Amino acid sequence: MAPKKPATATGPATTSATSTSTSTSSSSSSQIDKIALNIVQHYHKTTPQRTKLIDAFMAFLVIVGGLQFAYCVLAGNYPFNAFLSGFSATVGQFVLTDHRGQQIRVPIRITRKTSWWEA
């Protein structure tokens, strides 16, 4: 005796399921677009110019570090010391810039009641 074949759904039920999943994915992508646009607009409205300049410089450092790493992977790392020093300098500059950016974003207020080591 041959095993029974399972019944498969064909026709409009299958098409509606695929159209529903397509509309759900397109609506979720439009939601992501709206969220990203809202974040960018809020950033441009509320962020001071000085902080934007620091953020742009940090983005430049990320791009430079990425290019150095990609060159090392694609072209080889024959002068490895050169790659290591350049990449380390980029990462170090990023860290120092981030620390300075945090100092600018949150100013430290020292009063007479607060000693300098508590600030």
Automatic annotation (TrEMBL):
Membrane spanning residue stretches: 53-71
Membrane topology, as annotated: Multi-pass membrane protein
Keywords, alphabetical: Endoplasmic reticulum, Membrane, Transmembrane, Transmembrane helix
Pathway(s) where this gene product acts: Protein modification; protein glycosylation
Biased composition (Low complexity): 7-30
Any Pfam family the entry gives: DAD
Region: Disordered, residue numbers: 1-31
GO biological process: protein N-linked glycosylation
InterPro entries tied to this protein: DAD/Ost2 (IPR003038)
Compartments it resides in: Endoplasmic reticulum membrane
Highest rank taxon of the organism: Eukaryota
Entry keyword annotation includes Transmembrane: yes
GO CC, alphabetical: oligosaccharyltransferase complex
Major location (coarse): endoplasmic reticulum
UniProt feature coiled coil, ranges: none
Family to which the UniProt record says this protein belongs: Belongs to the DAD/OST2 family.
Subunit-structure text: Component of the oligosaccharyltransferase (OST) complex.
Job description of the protein: Subunit of the oligosaccharyl transferase (OST) complex that catalyzes the initial transfer of a defined glycan (Glc(3)Man(9)GlcNAc(2) in eukaryotes) from the lipid carrier dolichol-pyrophosphate to an asparagine residue within an Asn-X-Ser/Thr consensus motif in nascent polypeptide chains, the first step in protein N-glycosylation. N-glycosylation occurs cotranslationally and the complex associates with the Sec61 complex at the channel-forming translocon complex that mediates protein translocation across the endoplasmic reticulum (ER). All subunits are required for a maximal enzyme activity.
Protein name, per record: Dolichyl-diphosphooligosaccharide--protein glycosyltransferase subunit OST2
